[in-house]
Amino acid sequence: MNALEHQLDYPFAERLPLAGETCEVAPGVFWLRMPLPFALDHINLWLLRDEVEGQQGWTLIDCGIASDILKAHWEQVFDTRLEGLPVLRVIVTHCHPDHLGLAHWLCEGGERQRWTVRLWMSLGEYMMGRVMAAGDSGAGGASAARHFARHGVTDEASLEALRQRHGYYADLVPALPSQYRRIRDGDTLMIGGRRWQVVTGFGHSPEHCALHCAEAGVLISGDMVLPRISTNVSVFDIEPEGNPLGLYLEALGRYETMAADTLVLPSHGKPFRGLLTRIQQLREHHAARLAEVREACAAKPQSAADIVPLMFHRALDLHQMTFALGEALAHLHVLWLAGELTRSHDADGVLRFSA
Questions:
Q1: Is residue 314 part of a domain?
Q2: Which of 19, 88, 92, 117 gets the highest tally of CB atoms within 10 A of its CB?
């Protein structure tokens, strides 16, 4: 653990459910952990005992990417962990591939098509998923390459690799259900006889939906509050003048009213207590990064690519670089849109920010 983690309480210590198995973390709430083929090598998914319109079964929250490995793990869950009961609905917190990728397959009941159920998402996340599945996404394609070049990426091999990633999102999210049920901020969902309130967050994705049950003292936080790492907040080419970090910092206030001993169930890392402590850590983290960016831009004009090594002190592969540059730009945009920095093109057409 790092020093910040020592300030949090991990009630399950080092216990981790194996892929295809579950661990009960609150009454009727079960933790699944599935592998991912990235540096961030896992995602936490949630299985809640439920009853809908008089039928006993389960609600799934988040899905994992589309892959044969994850399908096999899900099939093991279906065969061994559902007590012979069906899935009744699939709730997805947001549109990123590790959360949405298998939604279509889960809603159709897996390989054996055991059930047909509805996908529940916010409008912003469902529509953004459809947009990215239909074309270039922020993580790849010609538009992404132009965006990165505009912000200081000059290595032609990296730019060409980005152009070739035009099918990145569609490979991980090959299909979406053609229909969905909309959820939005403040909605109350009855799951397992308890009230779960939808709490939307912004900055990480368009209209991220966390679920909070005050009665049980549980927050399914998705990617909005993570224990080990800071949530990625990036400016992508689809919204090139966006202010996602400003939106994210504002949205954190929605969780600061929750009980201090809330059990947080994050999408990455381990369940923890210490929600208010973690939010303060995140605020301090971004304040420190913004101070570094101010100082750098006061010394000389900086592109987003110039800021990346200031914020990330390690070698990055292309996948990591796409998010690192987007996050560097997000910090620049907070200061630019607040009037602390100016923005101009240099002789090579690269956007640079100055105090």
A1: no
A2: 92
Overall domain count for the chain: 1
Q: Domain range spanning residue 156?
A: 5-294
Question: Does 306 map to a domain?
Answer: no
Q: Is residue 328 part of a domain?
A: no
Measuring CA to CA, how many Å separate 297 from each of 29, 198, 326?
A: 47, 39, 17
CA dihedral angle for residue 265, residue 267, residue 268, residue 269, rounded to 10 degrees = 10
349 within some domain: no
pLDDT for position 39:
86
What three-state secondary structure class fits 26? strand
In this structure, the strands spanning 87-91 and 118-121 are parallel
Q: What is the mean pLDDT of residues 223-251?
A: 96
Q: Is 309 helix (H, G, I), strand (E, B) or coil?
A: helix
Query: Does the model's pTM come out above 0.90?
Result: yes
The C-alpha R_g of the chain, in whole angstroms, comes to: 21
**Residue 101: which CATH number?**
3.60.15.10
Report the pLDDT averaged over residues 278-294.
97
Q: How far apart are CA 180 and CA 125, in angstroms?
A: 11
Those residues whose C-beta lies under 8 Å from the C-beta of residue 251, and which sit 6 or more positions away, are: 200, 201, 202, 203, 224
Q: Among 108-122, 290-304, 315-329, which stretch is predicted with the lowest mean pLDDT? A: 315-329
